[in-house]
Design a protein that fits this description.
325 residues; mainly beta; YerB-like fold; eleven-stranded mixed sheet; 20 strands
Length: 325
């Protein structure tokens, strides 16, 4: 080997030696290993719908008319959760819960009942839009966790429509009230895939003394839609209110001693205790049982084997069913 070639080989050997790992010498430093990548966190989901939502956004509950003169209602299509309640005269009224979306207008807004006071106790501290209440009920409402926002408290948020007669014409700008409430809390609902079993149901109904609430499965939309006394329930903003899950919750009903202007006694549908329920989802009916041990406690729904009854993610309607209906 000539001298030039020997020199090149020596230089290459030195370079290669510098590329191989060697012993850790005093004072030597090395780059730290990059930290392991953390798995992306799933978005927070609503305790009312099981769908992604901003859990920092507050809750607003609005009492809404469901009499013939009050339909079609405004804002129901944006509600996360709606309760259908029996009231005096054998008709129904709605309590709509908004959190994921707050519509600009909700109504017609109506008054609070004894049923609402107990019902609201497991919602943390929601804002409550309502038109008023009977004096004997006001003390109970004042002791509830709800932030009371009737027209006298927020007169700039309410207005009356000239196209309907009172008391079916009071509407509220919901966005002016929603910030008064607190964020949502766990009310006991659980969401998940459709469980095994169940029985196919195309339509069913619940009868109150003077009205009938119909529930029909819309397979193309994959949701339940509603009717009142045989007429489809529609929305003033267009379309039809609907739900991914409908709960027919059988509850005891007691008289309150409070009467309306016509002299009819206001009923109290108790949502503390326990009883039977039927959960409608994915075109099927599932037998269930509900339990709520105290007013601040969540309401749990379980299957006959004791496992949680999962709801379908999406809007939920709960129809409070009196005994024998």
């Amino acid at each position: 080997m000539d001298r030039g070639r020997s020199t090149a080989v020596a230089v290459l050997a030195v370079l290669l030696a510098g590329c191989t790992p060697g012993p850790n010498l005093p004072g030597a430093t090395s780059s730290p290993a990059p930290p392991p990548r953390s798995a992306p966190q799933p978005p927070p989901v609503s305790p009312f719908t099981g769908l992604p939502t901003d859990l920092a956004a507050p809750v607003l509950v609005a009492k809404i008319d469901n009499a013939r003169q009050g339909r079609p209602q405004t804002g129901l299509t944006a509600a996360d959760l709606v309760y259908v309640e029996p009231v005096e005269g054998g008709v129904s009224r709605l309590a709509a819960v908004f959190q994921s979306r707050i519509p600009p207008v909700v109504g017609p807004v109506r008054s609070v009942r004894r049923t609402d006071v107990q019902l609201l106790a497991n919602f943390g501290r929601p804002a409550l839009a309502f038109s008023g209440t009977a004096p004997p009920l006001q003390l109970l409402l004042d002791g509830s966790p709800a932030v009371e926002l009737p027209p006298p408290a927020r007169p700039g948020a309410y207005s009356r429509s000239g196209s309907r007669s009172a008391p079916h014409n009071l509407y509220v700008n919901a966005r002016r009230l929603s910030g008064a409430g607190a964020p949502p809390v766990d009310i006991g609902f659980r969401f998940g895939p459709v469980p095994e079993g169940g029985r196919p149901v195309g339509a069913t109904s619940v009868r109150y003394n003077s009205t009938r609430i119909g529930v029909e499965w819309a397979p193309v939309q994959r949701r339940w839609v509603f009717a009142v006394d045989g007429s489809p329930l529609t929305a003033a903003e267009g379309g039809r209110p609907g739900a991914a899950t409908v709960v027919l919750q059988r509850v005891p009903v007691e008289p309150t001693g409070i009467r309306d202007a016509a002299g009819a006694v206001s009923p109290f549908a108790l949502t503390v205790g326990g009883g039977e329920a039927v959960v409608l989802r994915d075109g099927k009916a599932f037998d269930a049982r509900w339990v709520r041990p105290a007013p601040p406690a969540p309401t749990t729904f379980t299957r006959p084997d004791g496992t949680p009854m999962p709801f379908a993610p999406g809007q939920v309607w709960v129809v409070l069913v009196p005994p024998g209906r």
